[in-house]
Amino acid sequence: MTTQSGNRYALVTGASRGIGRAVALKLASQGFSVIINYVSNSEAAQKTLDDILAQGGQAELLRFDVGDAQATAEALAQWRTQHEGEYISVVVNNAGVRKDNLMLWMTQQEWAKVLATSLDGFYNVTQPLLKDMLVKKWGRVVNVASLSGVKGMPGQVNYSAAKGGLIAATKALAQEVAKKRVTVNAVAPGFIKSDMTADLNEAELKKLVPAGRFGEAEEVAELVAFLVSDAAAYITGEVISINGGIYT
Ligand code: NAP
Known about the structure:
The protein is α/β, with parallel strands linked by helices. It has one domain: Rossmann fold. 44% of the residues lie in helices and 16% in strands. It has eight helices and seven strands. Strands 3-2-1-4-5-6-7 form a seven-stranded parallel β-sheet, with helices on both faces. Helix 4 links the parallel strand 4 and strand 5. It is globular. The protein binds NADP nicotinamide-adenine-dinucleotide phosphate.
């Protein structure tokens, strides 16, 4: 893969586990120096780091809560002072949480936490990184949305709203920055095996999937890696479903 020369830094939020971890490993294998963000699970984040180093890649940890605007700004500012002259050219907004409940019983906390992580997190992380991408005239933003944000899922009004908002933000931002060779896309996974889906009844739910199975985090990582590559330079403002054939 060819992009601009020098160290190419890719920030993956929520890279300690699941899809983010798989994306971090994949981007590292493609030569990116990966910034592994996480919020609480230091052990899992360290494991992602160790695995990248073991495969000969470059990575570092950067802990912050993407839903906390101040903490995010401080962490990114600190990274910048520690990496003078460098910039983060790729951001994968992957951090997310589920707090499912029927709207009738949904608490304000359940609503706010999910919106803060997926939607505020997108703003908090992307906004400070955008300027460098525009000035350097090369950047990639990939937002991990969801099937839920495309079609809406009962029991997930909060999550559908967060992911639907993320999809609309993707389309809007893509148009703002396209001239500067910065692309902004979303991926919309269906059911992917991870801690987030560990409580679901896989045997029942896989019957809804034409492919007859849940997806693997590594399959999502392949798609993200393509969108980040130079080969995908003319794809922007898109939402690419990766769900085993569920019609959206
Ligand atoms: P996961 O296994 O539960 O992992 C979630 C990751 O996000 C962890 O690394 C976690 O860090 C991090 N995280 C959570 N809140 C954070 C915060 N406030 N700040 C920073 N990091 C935070 O989830 P996953 O299944 O890989 O999901 C990844 C993304 O894909 C999410 O956005 C999710 O909505 C989306 N998605 C997943 C599926 C699926 O079927 N799995 C389907 C569609 C979309 P810690 O380890 O520190 O807690």
